Amino acid sequence: MQLSSLLERFNEPETLKMAKLGRELRSKGIDVIDLSLGEPDFDTPDHIKEAAIQAIKDNWSHYTPVAGYLDLREAICTKLKRDNDLDYKPENIIASTGAKQSLANTIFA
């Protein structure tokens, strides 16, 4: 079977290469601050797991708006005001699926 030549252009993402290199250096005893993947260094707290399970049961399983749900963006504004004394409006906030997606959206805009 012959696949599209476009598939031959895909390489391992640089972030995964960086994470692999960080693990290799760490295994050699080198102190590494790994900023590659952006994953937390702790397990998901139980109350968040329970909320995610409930969201699935409530059928919150469809694509979100590109900027994120309005109620989430409003909650982010509330948090920023409460904890950081910053004033933002929901239209100034984007809750995306991650940094790569936000960068891609920015570049395409």
Description:
With 109 residues, the protein is an all-alpha fold. It is built from 4 helices and no strands. The radius of gyration is 19 Å and the shape is extended.
Describe the structure concisely for a colleague:
This protein is an all-alpha fold and 109 residues long.
Which key phrases capture this entry?
47% helix, extended, mainly alpha, 109 residues
Q: Strand portion, in percent?
A: under 5%
Topology, number of strands: 0
* Ends apart, CA distance between termini: 37 Å
Shape: extended
Q: What class would the helix/strand composition place it in?
A: mainly alpha
Largest sheet: none
Average pLDDT confidence is: 90
Helical residue percent band: 40-55%
Helical run tally? 4
Rounded to an integer in angstroms, the radius of gyration calculated over CA atoms is 19 Å
Name the poorly predicted regions.
none
User: Which H/E pattern describes the elements?
Assistant: HHHH
